[in-house]
Amino acid sequence: MPLSRQATVEHIYATGLRNQWHPVVPSSFVAPGAMRKVTALGEPWLLFRRSDGTLAMLADRCPHRSAPLSLGIHLGDRVACWYHGVEVATDGTVSAVPGLPGCNLEGRKLVTSLPVREVGGAILAYFGDEQHPEPAELTLPEPLTDPGTDAFLCYAEWNVPWRYAVENLLDPMHGAFLHHESHSMYDGDTTAKFRIRETDRGYFFEKTDQRGVNFDWVELCRTGVDWVDLEIPYPLSAGPGGPFGIVGMVCPVDERRCGVFFWRYRRVRGWQRDTWRFLYRTLIEQRHWDVLEQDRAMLEALPADADQQENLYQHDLGVVRLRRLFRAGAESQSVTS
């Protein structure tokens, strides 16, 4: 539902910035003719897909007595609340009240319905506040829309604040240590200097003395949805196609949980695409999951006040800049700031 006028800076900072798009879950989580309850930005939602594949996202709250609509019955183009049978259409309008036909609930849009998009096998939704209910302009990541790029989506849920997962991506140096045994990050220096390079959509955080060896740079992109892009050289055993890239997004589930979306991509066509897909599924995919598991284990082990008990240095400039951006966003969206 739209952000309350009483939302505080800390609540927004903990549960995710509004007035932008966020990934929610993989598209495969909601089959045609099915419903699924999800939590995003600290609120319960209902994903509802018609039999023709059309997707809708509703606040998981019946407008009658606030019972969860996710416990209701899928009626093709609407959902019937299990408690009293009140029917809600996919745009949030009450279409019928079986217990009292013609009552004043019918025909009124009483349930929040979010704009949704699907890209690269993931569902994105726009979360606005009361002052910004219309969806922000959305420019999707190029690797997910370029027909010459092939991508696989990896999704996982981690018991960490959403900001920690994004910060992990804006910290290229951790790859040389945490992922040192990885097949793609075993090489390169363990000392480096970094710089921030501004772009018209965000910024690069990159090594100044190494390129094309390891996890040497990352770009934060703010294009209606926050995402990061990076490339890592592949060994010859990974087949043709050059470096592989990662597009990363994070869904704030609640104050302590998040969903992480990683699209592993390569710019390949024809037989190179077929070779890449075969090698990925048979050899490389498990290695990537192993790397993600290292990230998960480390981030979940951090104490709850980790970002309050730090001593940062030059390698953390990208993280510091990120925190300032997110904090400024939370302050601008809070009526109490």
Structure write-up:
The chain is α+β, with helices and mostly antiparallel strands and 337 residues long. It folds into 2 domains: 108 residues, Rieske [2Fe-2S] iron-sulphur domain (Rieske Iron-sulfur Protein, 3-layer Sandwich); 191 residues, Naphthalene 1,2-dioxygenase Alpha Subunit, Chain A, domain 1. Helix content is 20%, strand content 30%. The chain has 5 helices and 18 strands. The strands form 4 sheets. It has a 7-stranded antiparallel β-sheet, with helices on one face. A hairpin with a 3-residue loop joins strand 15 and strand 16. Helix 1 packs across helix 5. It is globular, with a radius of gyration of 22 Å. The protein starts with 8 loop residues before the first helix and ends with a helix. The relative contact order is 0.16.
What is the tally of beta strands? 18
In total, the number of domains comes to 2
Q: Using only CA atoms, what is the Rg?
A: 22 Å
Please tally the helical runs, counting DSSP H or I stretches of 4 or more residues: 5
**Share in helix:** 10-25%
Q: Per CATH, which architecture of the largest domain?
A: Alpha-Beta Complex
Q: Regarding CATH, which class of the largest domain? A: Alpha Beta
Q: Could you tell me the strand content as a percent range?
A: 25-35%
Spell out the CATH superfamily of the largest domain.
Answer: Naphthalene 1,2-dioxygenase Alpha Subunit, Chain A, domain 1
Quick one: overall form?
Answer: globular
Going by helix content, strand content and strand pairing, the class is alpha+beta
- The H/E string reads HEEEEEEEEEEEHEHEEEEEEHH
The average pLDDT score comes to 90
User: Biggest β-sheet: count, sense, barrel?
Assistant: 7 strands, antiparallel
Low-confidence segments, given as residue ranges, are none
Question: The CATH topology of the largest domain, please?
Answer: Naphthalene 1,2-dioxygenase Alpha Subunit, Chain A, domain 1
